[in-house]
Amino acid sequence: MIISVPDGATEIIYTTSNEDPRKSDEVLHVKESMDLAYLVKDKAGVIVKMRALDEHGNASDVVTVEVINKAKKYEVAVDQDLFGKKGSFKFPDNVQGLIAVMKSLIKQGVAQSLLTKETGEKLEKAIHQLLGETIKR
Predict the structure, then answer these.
(1) pTM greater than 0.85 (yes/no)
(2) Domain span at residue 125?
(3) Domain ends where: 54, 69, 84?
(4) How many domains does the chain have?
């Protein structure tokens, strides 16, 4: 998805932190056009909040867009906040998606040293054996 500065505006300001770009310290600027796909190249998805600004600093209403990386849409995203780590993911709508979510959870379990690599591999193999049968039917 490509965004461009609209007629009458000089730039687009945006955030990926779910904050209003006029009030955020993490505001980013686009002077011409930008492909939003680059924002999710390493992520499952991101919420972009943006506004167009004119030469006098007048801002449009906030436009919110959720950008999804189809190749990673079922991966668990782990974020840190004041209360610790939390994970989120797109709930699957088919067996392949369920397998992808489970594999992603196992990968996170190994990365957090909750599971050994060997245990993670065994779990993935078992999931493919059990749920792979469902896909073949």
Answers:
(1) no
(2) 74-136
(3) 69
(4) 2
